[in-house]
Amino acid sequence: MSAFASIDYEDIFHLVSVGMCVSRQRVVYAANDALAEMFGHSRAALAGQSLELLYPSIGEFETIGSRIAICLARGGIYSDERIMRRASGELFWCHVTGRALTAQNPHAVGVWTFEDLSARRPLFIGMTPRERQVAALLLEGKTSKVIARDIALSPRTVEMHRANLMRKFGTSTSYELVTKLAGLI
């Protein structure tokens, strides 16, 4: 028998230092201690709750859920950086990565990791939900035209949101904006 036969994978899941959860139809089936601590909920309070609890708004939950389903249906791994919400209401940047057990039903069962980026990427509180969405896609390196297609807006509307972000962050170029959004300056 191998040395791995005695490993308790459930203990590993709960003790790993990165936030993790298993979801079924976008409802938390199991969460580890790191995830509960990151979001300010107990593991028991998270179990059975919709993942919407962790999003700043229901609109962001639905929009990101649609993007996730498309990616995972192709059999891929979904990854992004987005703004999430703690139990206290505090918003923070989070790197989220996940994979579906089956591509045919991407939300049936998923395994997700969450990394709190707030220590290196402070959040500018004055952003609207749509600006947060555009900001997250800008950080992925997407152009206004691609962002417009991805979130069903006109390129002109995306440019308006980008201009608002540039004004709010005090930047004069898209490069400066992305650098500030990434918390690099």
Explain this structure to me?
The structure is a single chain. By secondary structure, this protein is of the alpha+beta class. It has two domains: 3-116, PAS domain (Beta-Lactamase); 129-181, Arc Repressor Mutant, subunit A. 41% of the residues lie in helices and 21% in strands. It is built from eight helices and five strands; from the N terminus they run αββαααβββαααα. The chain has helices at 9-15, 33-39, 43-46, 58-73, 129-139, 144-151, 155-169, 174-181; strands at 19-24, 27-31, 77-85, 91-100, 109-116. Strands 2-1-5-4-3 form a five-stranded antiparallel sheet. α5 (129-139) crosses α7, α6 crosses α7 and α7 crosses α8. It is globular, with a radius of gyration of 18 Å. The model has no long low-confidence stretch (mean pLDDT 88).
Q: Quickly give the structural class.
A: alpha+beta
| N-to-C span | 53 Å
Radius of gyration: 18 Å
CATH superfamily of the largest domain: PAS domain
Could you please say which CATH topology of the largest domain applies here?
Beta-Lactamase
List the secondary-structure elements in sequence, H or E: HEEHHHEEEHHHH
> How large is the count of helical segments?
8
Overall tally of domains? 2
Portion in strands: 15-25%
Helicity, in percent? Answer: 40-55%
Tell me the quaternary state. Answer: single chain
User: What is the spatial order of strands in the main beta sheet?
Assistant: 2-1-5-4-3
Low-confidence stretches: none
Q: What is the CATH-assigned architecture of the largest domain?
A: 2-Layer Sandwich
